[in-house]
Design a protein that fits this description.
Blueprint: H1 7-22, H2 24-31, E1 35-40, E2 43-48, H3 53-76, E3 81-87, E4 93-94, H4 105-109, H5 136-147, E5 156-160, H6 166-180, E6 186-190, H7 191-203, H8 208-219, E7 223-227, H9 236-251, E8 255-260, H10 272-279, E9 282-286, H11 291-304, H12 311-320, H13 325-341, H14 348-362, H15 368-378, H16 383-387, H17 393-409, H18 414-420, H19 426-442, H20 444-459
The chain binds adenosine-5'-triphosphate.
Adenosine-5'-triphosphate is lined by residues 128-130, 135, 162-168, 228, 261, 297, 300, 325-326, 329.
Length: 461
């Protein structure tokens, strides 16, 4: 997934998928003649040549638009819908009313009023963030941080499962601070961006300018937002560099906000001094939204997308899709695409049809292989190591968790599980299972982690 594709790059990728899907003849008639103009918010503007415009648009509205939305989603992670601008024969644009606000990408990018390279998504604001019991604490602290950065809650670390709004909330802090302080220097980077910037600065062969530029970029900020710091697990060099960046910024009372998919103590091979630095600030978690919050999120999406969907339909989708907010948004946009592009009514029946499709896609068979892969990835270990006799503590933990999940999620017997885990005997499988079972009963965090892993395993994520 990339946020940084421009409209031409995205069009190239999506039209390639459409070519494979539709075949050369349909592609030549209905896709090839179109030209991308730009992306405005969640609309992809396409120029349609005058002569065959109506026929082409009809074809899009019955078949191609849905596919476009899906392929564009795969590339960007966003839901972008196509909108058409007809051109007359002399090639002048005739804008339809719905598209008159659309501008080429280059111009729309200039709407960002402050430091252009902050890397913030303007849609990730507090206004667009729905508050519920699973996130109200994190949200309240985020507001305080945005209003008084570098003061009380520094650093601020938000942690929680996949797709629950960590990035959104972190960027809302940046967007609010930027709005209130247009000259503030703010940078959003994923932990991977930070690592890449750092290694690129080193790769320049000891060029002191490159190193100085890296340091200047990160150490002269007013606010640094770093996403997914679990990515640094077991990477001591980048941890060292971040430690220095962290010290430089906090010493100057500059704000640091971070996200992670787990509590810092659960990040394998994270240096103790970083852990203790993180503890100087505040940590809050985001939990899965309850049904009320899920329906409120759907209502929010409805308003943002200018739709009018009956309450019972929103309620049904909200009750049925309980994985995470990203999946919920996915369900909403699938529904939206059906009513916009396939002329389906916004009814319970249409909602049921998309829910059936979602469930059909979800039915991944739970196998021990799948469990081992998901758990190994979570603990940043290899499956082979997990099956081996090595006894390093993170590895043992990963092995025990995978055994516990295999016992609870499959019908395999203890000897069968033993065999799948490097020919262990059934008593050590039973021991591993009991150990984790006890922890699940005692520790809320362990229980949540097991639930999240089980969900990933089932969802085939
Ligand atoms: N409380 C909320 N209100 C409105 N939208 C939300 C909320 N929480 C999450 N979202 C939306 O759900 C999607 C996923 O959120 P986000 O990317 O912030 O998740 P994340 O926790 O950072 O996930 P990951 O661990 O995969 O990075 C985004 O489009 C975001 O806007």
């Amino acid at each position: 997934m990339s946020d940084n594709l421009n409209s031409t790059e995205l069009w190239d990728k999506v039209s390639f998928s459409l070519y494979q899907d539709l075949g050369a003849i349909s592609f030549g008639s209905f896709v090839d003649p179109l030209t991308p103009v730009g992306i405005e918010s969640n609309r992809f503007i396409l120029k349609v040549p005058g002569e065959f415009a109506d026929k082409i648009i009809d074809q899009w509205n019955t078949e191609i638009a849905m596919k476009f939305v899906e392929y564009a989603n795969k590339e960007t992670g966003k839901f972008i819908r196509p909108e058409f601008q007809k051109t007359d024969d002399s090639n002048n644009l005739q804008e339809s009313p719905a598209t008159s606000a659309a501008k080429p990408l280059e111009e729309s990018e200039q709407h960002i009023p402050f430091s252009q390279d902050a890397g913030l998504n303007p849609d990730f604001t507090f206004d667009h963030f729905v508050i519920g019991s699973g996130n109200e604490n994190a949200r309240a602290i985020a507001q305080a941080v945005a209003e008084g950065p570098g003061k009380v809650y520094n650093p601020y670390l938000i942690y929680g499962g996949v797709g629950l709004g960590k990035t959104h909330l972190m960027q809302a802090i940046g967007n609010k601070y930027a709005k209130d302080n247009p000259n503030a220097r703010i940078k959003y980077a994923t932990a991977e961006d930070f690592l890449n910037d750092f290694t690129n600065s080193l790769r320049k062969g000891g060029d002191t300018n490159a190193t100085a530029l890296f340091k200047k970029t990160y150490r002269s900020l007013d606010m640094l937002l770093v996403d997914d710091i679990q990515f640094w697990a077991g990477k001591p060099q980048v941890q060292e560099e971040f430690f220095n960046t962290f010290n430089a910024l906090t010493k100057a009372n500059k704000q640091i906000v971070m996200t992670s998919d787990r509590y810092p103590n659960d990040i394998p091979d994270l240096q103790d001094r970083l852990k203790s630095r993180f503890e100087q600030g505040i940590t809050s978690d985001i939990q899965k939204p309850d049904v009320q919050t899920r329906v409120a999120i759907l209502r929010n999406l409805q308003d943002q997308n200018d739709l009018d969907i009956p309450n019972d339909v929103l309620q049904l989708i909200g009750e049925s899709v309980d994985d995470n907010v990203r999946t919920l948004e996915g369900a909403f946009h699938k529904f939206e695409a059906k009513i916009r592009f396939m002329n389906k009514p916004a009814t319970i029946e249409t909602a049921k049809s998309i829910l059936d499709e979602i469930n059909a896609n979800k039915k991944t068979v739970v196998t021990v292989d799948r469990i081992q892969q998901v758990v190994a990835a979570y603990y940043m270990q290899t499956v082979d190591d997990m099956k081996s006799s090595r006894r390093q503590s993170d590895l043992v933990m990963a092995r025990h968790v995978a055994i516990y999940l295999t016992r609870t999620m499959t019908d395999m017997s203890l000897p069968q599980i033993g065999h799948a885990f490097g020919d262990r005997d059934h008593s050590s499988i039973s021991h591993a299972f009991t150990k984790i079972e006890e922890q699940v009963e005692k520790e809320a965090r362990m229980k949540e982690m097991i639930q999240a892993l089980a969900e990933d395993i089932r969802n085939g994520q």
